[in-house]
Amino acid sequence: MPYLQLDLHHIYNNSRSVEDALQQVFDEAMEKRIRKVQIIPGKEDGKLVKKIELFLQQPHIRKHYQRVEKGDKKTGMLTVFFKF
Question: Which residues, in sequence order, are bridge partners of residue 80?
């Protein structure tokens, strides 16, 4: 299954850039009808993961995916599965 991957290591401390990057990868996934997006926040204290979760909970975002799987705590990776 093809998927997109978003690595946030290099912008983790810039809230606006993180939100823009998340929106861009979601737009691309919907445009290309790609069902899986992996988001890699990297090692940190959990603030970025919370920021990602808040982004995912927005109603205009939430309506496009069916579930989110969390990876191990070491990487904090989240995998979002879209519904088409």
Answer: 37, 68
The answer to whether the beta carbons of residues 37 and 6 sit under 8 Å apart is yes
* Number of residues assigned to the chain: 84
* Phi, psi of 56, rounded to the nearest 5 degrees: -65, -25
For residues 65 and 25, is the Cβ–Cβ distance under 8 A? no
Report yes or no: 4 and 37 within 8 Å, Cβ to Cβ: yes
Q: What is d(CA 49, CA 70) in angstroms, rounded to the nearest whole number?
A: 10
Region at 39 (left for phi over 0; alpha for psi -120 to 50; beta for the rest): beta
What value does the mean pLDDT take over residues 58-84?
A: 90
Prediction pTM value: 0.88
Spatial CA neighbour of 40 closest among 49, 31, 27: 49
38, two tokens: 């992996």
